[in-house]
Amino acid sequence: MLGINRKLANLEDKGSYIKVGLVGAGQMGRGMISQIESMKGMRVVITADLAINNVDNAYKNAGINESDINVTDDLKAAREAVLQDQVVATKDSKLVTALPEVDVVVDATGVPDIGAQIAWDSILNNKHIVMLNVEADVTVGPLLKKMADSSGVVYTGSAGDEPGAIMELYDFADAMGFEVVALGKGKNNPLNLESNPDVTAEEAKAKGSSPKMLASFQDGTKTMVEMNAVANATGFAPDQPGMHGFEGKVADLPGIFIEKEKGGKLNHRKVVDFVNGVAPGVFAIIASDKDEVNAEMKYLKMGDGPNYVLYRPYHLTSLETPLSIAKAYFDEEPTIAPHYGLRGETVAIAKKDLYEGDYLDGIGGYSVYGKLLKADEAKADKALPIGLVDRNIKLTKAVKQGDVITYDAVEQTKESTIWKLRALQDKS
């Protein structure tokens, strides 16, 4: 079987290329456009963003001539531009999903409700969809995957995102017959459950990033959501609510991820977790019950067993997304998808004391953070998924700091796509 690079080169040699539609020209989207312009056999032919200057600058920074950038919200004009090997900048995300020439859509908005709508529209228009929106995926991904499967298109998370990088390690080990004991990632910063945009403002300004996004990393929500995606893809689960968040270096991992009665720190095997001290890498803890395999692993300097660690010290975020685009297009396979349905649930926890009549403000804000539970535990608690939280959610009763926010403690003041899809998913 040819590698992706050769498949792309062959496609270009035939005078063709994969036509990508992108929604979201923020940091992730801009990087992806430039990366794809360096590749063979692929191009981002249309990009949508409410700030049209973001799209224009993204294309120019990728080396595309201004004369080849067409700003339009008109379907006919967009089609003509793409057929002439030009690119389109638009404010209308529905133009991206409706454009017949687009083969694969990428959601890089980072907003759960918008991402759910983009995925829904892409599937209805028979297009493969790559999600750089893990928050939407862990909330309604199981339903979207079923829809995509029925429509004969691919629903997938992205290579380069930590869940995708972990899944590659899992697939590698599982294919060779190893037992996969645990899957995890490093956390870049100390856990601060009270982090908010005020706390992160100075650091975010220095890094040129969003204060809300940085807060979602610091308060642990992003880590919970990412490992939630891995749980849904593999059938693994958190060993305890919120996972452990162990401390350690790469060499420590095989000893940490052993059951407590055997000298380790786990209650169970087949768990997802995070570790402070190994960022920005991802890892899989593997084992074998075969003496010959263990002897060879020792010979290969993989350790003395019984556990071994596979560690990848980097993940290139949206720069690797083109690999998922190509895999969906050529092989009709996902990089990572919720094969096991909803195995985990990242639920909303009050970041401070909240009162009746308060409105929630979303991920990385001032009111909530996410905590990963097993899906059945979350269902029993009637816990509100973090992906359903936005500024249109009003509290109908007070919730104390650190408590789970439940469905019966909120009301939706404005209907949203992701709530509709979640209701469908819960009935299916």
TrEMBL record:
Residue stretches making up the Oxidoreductase DRL-like catalytic domain: 160-321
Domain Aspartate/homoserine dehydrogenase NAD-binding: 24-138
CDD domains: SAF_DH_OX_like
Coiled coil: none
Family matches, as InterPro entries: Asp/hSer_DH_NAD-bd (IPR005106), DRL_cat (IPR048423), NAD(P)-bd_dom_sf (IPR036291)
The organism's place on the tree of life at top rank: Bacteria
Single GO MF descriptor: NADP binding
Record PANTHER family: SAF DOMAIN PROTEIN, STRU PROTEIN
The name this protein goes by in its record: Predicted homoserine dehydrogenase, contains C-terminal SAF domain
Organism (species): Lentibacillus halodurans
